[in-house]
Write a structure and sequence with these properties.
nine-stranded mixed β-sheet
């Protein structure tokens, strides 16, 4: 019965106006995903009135959606409903703008000129009215209307002559004053147009103290049997936020572990600043579909006269779109199948402190709980923060390819990197406090071992030269055999013993008529697929080693080989 009363009361009050007690609140926590963020906002302790009431949490993000808005009661009361509402705020009074002195002076001059022209046009109009009255008086004179019926003929001629002269003078004056009126009217119109331009400029330069805007509020409906107090927590998801992982890989010596610094570029443009907010960085990607995959139906049929699907054509696209659980999975599977079909015969080789956060594992996702609070403005700018530091063991060695460069390059191999919870991102590489390069970490494309280049060491040097080149015929055939011998001299001019991986190259061919063999490899490992020769050397301080290798090429004498 009590539940029914609560529901009935809630229904009766559902059509509420925008009113209620206003609560102050602040953002105290945010879980930032690779794309998007879950924001947690909390009020202070507030009195909760008996019965059904509405409270308003004002000025929240404009990017909240009703479906992703939740509210929780902290206290002895219930949350009946939570709604997102908007409020239109009209602009306030316009502020006074001080115009430039030149503009203000021109406006004052125009006002005086227009006032003078108004008086001038009135004077001209009165002049024309007077002349028109005088002309009309003459035309309405009884002497003119009488037509010379009185007095003698000489007297009549004298009267007519007088009126003719008088009317000519009046007409000349009327024309002259009309010209003046026309010129004055043109000047008046010109100045009024300019005055209107200046007024428009003045109006446009005025800005309201506060422009019109829309405010967003959260309205929470509560119910309590008795008056009490408590807090209200709301959380909502926003799309325009995220973080970008980055790393620093630092090595100080070849006998020490490598320090990996996890960094994050966090950004948000939610419309509300985050001030001293506790952050949790999550690797969860909300763009992935959460629906389980469906196997679909696998049908068999005879393939006679039936076209077979080819990787990359339209048939495969239809299959992927119909049998994968999401477009992302379909596209990923299509790219994988296409890559496998293109490179199925090729051996692909990928070249790849103090904890500031706590790590928690949730299914296949990792959350980094940042220990220090951060403030992030809602302007989309990136805030760089250090998440945590890890030390990992690495195997250091030198690599040298004398046919391309005579110096040795310090390398580091990191194994078991899968436990480091790495994400795709840029990594800066430092050796002895100096940046030596950068690389893109992509866990999906890396092999079991991550290999880093820590820079060139001029203390490990080499020279490479061709010792001999011999050619001889094979019996009575038209084939010839050429042998090439090269010598590599390697020196360790450092004060430490080093492990060195030395590589060189011999040619390979897909033509069965051309035969290439290694005659003497001096203990090298040969990769038949690439023709790469590899020597693993251990060199003492100041030691010099000489490596010689010979290979042969057998081919038709009359056919040049290149």
């Amino acid at each position: 019965m009590k539940s029914i009363l609560i529901l009935a009361t809630a229904l009766l009050t559902s059509q509420f106006a925008f009113c209620g007690d206003t609560l102050s609140s602040n953002i105290h926590k945010a879980t930032v995903f690779l794309s998007g963020a879950q924001v947690f906002r909390q009020t202070g302790t507030v009195p909760i009135k008996k019965g059904v009431n509405e409270v308003i949490i004002k000025d929240v993000s404009p990017y909240i959606t009703q479906q992703q808005l939740q509210a929780t009661a902290v206290g002895n009361f219930l949350i009946l409903d939570v709604q997102l509402q908007t409020e239109y705020v009209a602009p306030t009074n316009y502020q006074i703008i001080i115009l430039p002195e030149k503009i203000q002076k021109e406006i004052n001059q125009l006002e005086d000129t227009l006032l003078f022209l108004t008086f001038e046009l009135e004077r001209i109009t009165e002049k024309l009215n007077n002349l028109a009255g005088e002309k009309n008086m003459i035309l309405q004179s009884q002497l003119v209307k009488a037509g010379g019926m009185s007095d003698t003929l000489p007297e009549f001629k004298e009267i007519v002559s007088y009126y003719r002269v008088k009317l000519d003078d009046i007409n000349e004056l009327i024309v002259a004053w009309k010209k003046k009126k026309h010129l004055a009217t043109m000047r008046d119109t010109k100045h009024k147009v300019r005055m209107q331009e200046l007024r428009n400029y003045t109006q446009n330069t005025k800005q309201p103290n506060e422009p019109a805007k829309t405010r967003y509020h959260i309205v929470v409906t509560t119910y309590s049997d008795l008056g009490s107090s408590g807090k209200i927590e709301v959380n909502y998801f926003i799309n325009n936020a995220g973080w970008i992982p980055a790393y620093d890989l630092r090595a100080n010596a070849t006998n020490e572990p490598i320090n990996i610094t996890y960094k994050a570029h966090v950004f948000q443009n939610s419309g509300e600043d985050w001030d001293n907010v506790q952050l949790v960085l999550s690797t969860y990607d909300r763009t992935y579909s959460i629906e389980k995959p469906l196997a679909g139906v696998w049908r068999l049929d005879y393939t006679v006269n039936k076209p077979q699907p080819v990787y990359g054509n339209r048939n495969n696209e239809v299959y992927y779109s119909q049998n994968m659980s999401s477009p992302v999975q379909a596209q990923s599977m299509k790219e994988k199948m296409t890559k496998d079909s293109q490179y199925s015969d090729v051996n692909l080789t990928y070249v790849p402190g103090q904890s500031l956060s706590e790590i928690s594992q949730n299914f296949s996702n990792v959350e980094f709980e940042v220990k220090l609070p951060y403030s992030i403005k809602a302007d989309g700018s990136q805030k760089l923060m250090v998440v945590m530091n890890e030390k990992v063991d690495a195997k250091f060695f030198y690599y040298m390819l004398p046919r391309m460069n005579n110096a040795g390059f310090l390398q580091a191999k990191i194994g078991d990197w899968e436990n480091l919870s790495l994400l795709p991102g840029k990594a800066n590489i430092y050796f002895q406090q100096t940046i030596v390069g950068s690389l893109m970490i992509d866990p999906a494309a890396m092999s079991d071992t991550m290999e880093l280049t820590l820079g060139r060491d001029q203390g490990i040097v080499s020279t490479r030269k061709k010792i001999s080149e011999e050619e001889r015929k094979i019996g009575l055939s038209k084939r010839v055999l050429k042998e090439y011998t090269f010598e590599i001299e390697v020196r360790n001019n450092t004060r430490a013993a080093v492990d060195l991986t030395l590589e060189d190259l011999i040619p390979i061919t897909a033509n069965e008529d051309i035969k290439i063999k290694i005659v003497s490899g001096n203990g090298a490992y040969l990769n038949d697929m690439t023709g790469m020769l590899t020597w693993k050397l251990k060199m003492k301080p100041g030691e010099k080693q000489i490596i010689r290798f010979t290979y042969s090429i057998e081919s038709e004498k009359d056919k040049p080989v290149s």
